[in-house]
Specification:
six-stranded parallel sheet; four-stranded parallel sheet; 41% helix; elongated; binds magnesium ion
Length: 268
């Protein structure tokens, strides 16, 4: 689809954060202007990150520090998708959460009964406070029959000093130990799109998932009847697209380019 036509038909932009809006603690050039152009065009945006180690409130503070204040309704994480999935399909079931204290707080605030004993369900998240004891307990619970869920599938998380092991790596270890595979939530899965549509009221054809990863960000859109937009400010290079099974609906150099095109369209 033509670059401008894709922007014209998109009413809601669901933005990835790291590699798309900022790199580490540095906002990318043109990213704040993109948000202004979206608002000026009468369209909407929200942020979605697979990183379940931090709470939505922490992201709100981080973005505010970059001069981009957002409302709670404009930030969603794979932790939020997991909470919604549990409340929809497993209301009242007990959960052993292998996650960070901020994620535990989010689960408790949502009324999910957490237990340190044998639960109905084990949820594995991006636990940066992981210990051998927690890993071992998760394996024991799954071996004893608990359902195995994971907030997202990312194997590694990029940081300023290189990759660190993410949720998918923990799931691989648990999977090897127990012989069980998890059900993954977050991007690129249908539950994420359903949550966005439910909470915003947009129809899927008017929603674009924007990010720097083909297999998570872009795939969320193209695999689930929404749009998938690739930006080249993070992990993916233009030459990677040919080899990928996931074909973006549009490719832009950056959110900055998208913002400039939106601003041009407003003037013509
Ligand atoms: Mg990213």
């Amino acid at each position: 689809m033509d670059k401008k036509e894709l922007l014209r038909t998109t009413k809601l932009f669901v933005l990835d954060m790291d590699g798309t809006f900022y790199l580490g603690n540095r906002i990318l050039p043109g990213a704040a202007d993109f948000l202004r152009a979206v608002r000026a065009a009468g369209k909407e945006y929200l942020f979605f990150t697979n990183n379940s180690s931090r709470s939505p409130e922490e992201y709100i503070r981080k973005l505010a520090g970059m001069g981009c204040p957002i409302a709670r309704s404009q930030i969603m994480t794979s932790g939020d998708v997991t909470i919604r999935y549990l409340k929809t399909h497993f209301a009242g079931k007990t959960v052993y959460l292998m996650g960070t204290p901020p994620l535990e707080e989010s689960f408790r605030a949502a009324g999910i009964p957490l237990t340190q004993g044998q639960p109905d369900i084990v949820v594995v998240a991006f636990d940066t406070t992981l210990t051998y004891e927690k890993l071992s307990h998760a394996c024991t619970c799954i071996r004893n029959g608990a359902l195995f869920l994971a907030t997202h599938l990312d194997i590694n998380c990029p940081t300023e000093t290189g990759f660190i092991p993410d949720c998918g790596s923990f799931c691989a270890a648990i999977g090897l130990s127990t012989g069980k595979k998890p059900k993954y939530l977050g991007k690129p899965f249908a539950e994420t799109v359903e949550m966005v549509l439910d909470q915003t009221g947009f129809v899927r054809e008017s929603v674009a998932f924007v990010g720097d990863r083909l297999y998570t960000d872009v795939a969320t859109g193209v695999n689930n009847g929404a749009k998938g937009i690739l930006v080249l400010t993070g992990e993916t290079h233009l030459e990677d697209v040919g080899a990928s099974a996931v074909k973006p609906d549009g490719i832009y150099a950056s959110l900055g380019e998208m913002g400039e095109l939106l601003a041009q369209m407003a003037q013509s």
